[in-house]
């Protein structure tokens, strides 16, 4: 019988209490005060931008929208949560969910957002707080050693966290299926976005990141940020990179589809990138070097470019000449959790930096895989004019079939992204099938 989510959360918190106690003892600290954060306002305005709480605060509570609140962690004591919940007829005051963590905490619903008084001892305060406030509290202000140690506590997910990520994926995939139907029905980018939000049951400000909904050439803008309100005359392609947040945990899924007016060469590219991604996922297991996986993606992209007639050189030459990097400038993936680009992806267990290879500066994950890590696997292949233009005058340009590439320019590109947990004996794809 599967453990209930409440039971999983209790075990998650027990492990978190033990991990914090160990870290704080090693750093000679008596406790740490975590601040959820304050929503920002637009310059010269009173309207607030979208808010997400500090990741380490969410690690305990899962509350992404709980602002101006404080959590005191002191080994040997119940976690103390001070929730900013003033009487207010303009806004609904903060409320806590009916979840297992609430009964484990000492909770104060407060009208003010001042930090709680700290007991005698040596404490740290983490979060977006002024250094002057930390000084008044006589607490260390965002000490790097503590931040890195707690980041490391988040790189391997508990069973509870993986259950939350799986649920986030379930909701996100419902959105992707609705987005595809809206696209095939002739919808504009805005229509597709609205269909996604409706099917995934979330408002836009609750998204873990701004959804990317790119029709035609817009699919080649990696973080395309607009939603056209009119459908294009011809529908060559759609790329949707969109997620969901469940109890603080983020899904991050991308799908690409060919439209009714797509060039015949485009659908085979989608199939090729999808097959490539499946092969990359099959290699995920403890001990695998993610940088090596990323390099393997480029070798496989070279093979795909050659197979589809976009280049006339060997796959090895396509990699060494920089052709594959022009067709795919981003990394294979990243760590995923309470943040979409989750923490500790570019450092080792001791908190030392693990920078990406010089040739692949965009790679966000440079670690060896361990059981409990959750990563995205998102190879892509795009026609991005500004990246391909320099190759026209270079020696590598002679190996590119430019007429074929230009036929695909108004299709943007392809990205296929799943969220995968590394297990003790392999991997578990958290993203549902189509």
UniProtKB/TrEMBL annotation:
Ranges where the Peptidase M24 domain occurs: 164-424
This enzyme's EC code(s): 3.4.13.9
Keyword Iron-sulfur carried by entry: no
Matches recorded under PROSITE patterns: PROLINE_PEPTIDASE (PS00491)
Transmembrane segments: none
Xaa-Pro dipeptidase N-terminal domain sequence ranges: 10-150
UniProt entry keywords in alphabetical sequence: Dipeptidase, Hydrolase, Manganese, Metal-binding, Metalloprotease, Protease
Record-level Gene Ontology MF annotations: proline dipeptidase activity
Pfam families documented for this protein: PepQ_N (PF21216), Peptidase_M24 (PF00557)
Physiological role: Splits dipeptides with a prolyl residue in the C-terminal position.
Family named by the database record: Belongs to the peptidase M24B family. Bacterial-type prolidase subfamily.
The protein's name: Xaa-Pro dipeptidase
Organism: Halomonas aquatica
């Amino acid at each position: 019988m599967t453990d209930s989510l409440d039971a999983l959360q209790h075990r998650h918190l027990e492990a978190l209490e033990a991990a914090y106690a160990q870290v704080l003892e090693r750093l000679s600290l008596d406790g740490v005060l975590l601040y959820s954060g304050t929503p920002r306002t637009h310059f010269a305005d009173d309207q607030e931008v979208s808010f997400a709480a500090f990741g380490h605060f969410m690690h305990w509570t899962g509350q992404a929208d709980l602002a101006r609140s404080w959590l005191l962690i002191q080994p040997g004591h119940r976690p103390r949560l001070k929730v900013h919940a003033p009487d207010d007829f303009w806004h609904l005051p903060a409320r806590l969910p009916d979840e297992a963590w609430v009964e484990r905490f000492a909770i104060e619903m407060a009208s003010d957002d001042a930090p709680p008084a700290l007991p005698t001892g040596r404490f740290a305060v983490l979060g977006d707080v002024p250094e002057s406030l930390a000084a008044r509290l006589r607490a260390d202000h965002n000490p790097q050693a503590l931040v890195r140690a707690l980041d490391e506590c988040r790189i391997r997910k508990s069973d509870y966290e993986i259950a939350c990520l799986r649920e986030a994926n379930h909701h996100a995939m419902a959105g992707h299926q609705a987005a595809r139907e809206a696209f095939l029905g002739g919808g504009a980018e805005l229509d597709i976005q609205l269909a996604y939000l409706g099917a995934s049951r979330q408002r836009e400000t609750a998204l873990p990141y701004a959804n990317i909904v790119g029709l035609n050439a817009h699919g080649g803008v990696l973080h395309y940020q607009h939603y056209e309100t009119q459908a294009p005359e011809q529908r060559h392609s759609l790329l949707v990179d969109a997620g969901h947040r469940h109890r603080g945990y983020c899904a991050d899924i991308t799908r690409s589809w060919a439209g009714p007016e797509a060039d015949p060469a485009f659908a085979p590219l989608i199939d090729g990138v999808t097959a490539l991604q499946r092969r990359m996922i099959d290699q995920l297991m403890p001990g695998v070097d993610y940088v090596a996986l990323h390099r393997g993606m480029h070798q496989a992209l070279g093979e795909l470019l050659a197979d589809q007639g976009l280049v006339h050189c060997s796959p090895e030459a396509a990699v060494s000449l920089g052709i594959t990097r022009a067709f795919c400038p981003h990394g294979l993936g990243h760590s995923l959790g309470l943040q979409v680009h989750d923490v500790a992806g570019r450092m080792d267990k001791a908190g030392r930096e693990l920078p990406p290879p010089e040739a692949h500066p965009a790679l966000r994950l440079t670690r060896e895989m361990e059981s409990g890590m959750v990563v995205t696997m998102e190879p892509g292949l795009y026609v991005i004019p500004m990246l391909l233009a320099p190759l026209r005058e270079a020696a590598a340009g002679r190996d590119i079939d430019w007429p074929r590439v230009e036929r695909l320019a108004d299709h943007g590109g392809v990205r296929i992204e799943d969220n995968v947990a590394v297990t003790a004996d392999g991997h578990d794809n958290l993203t549902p099938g189509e």
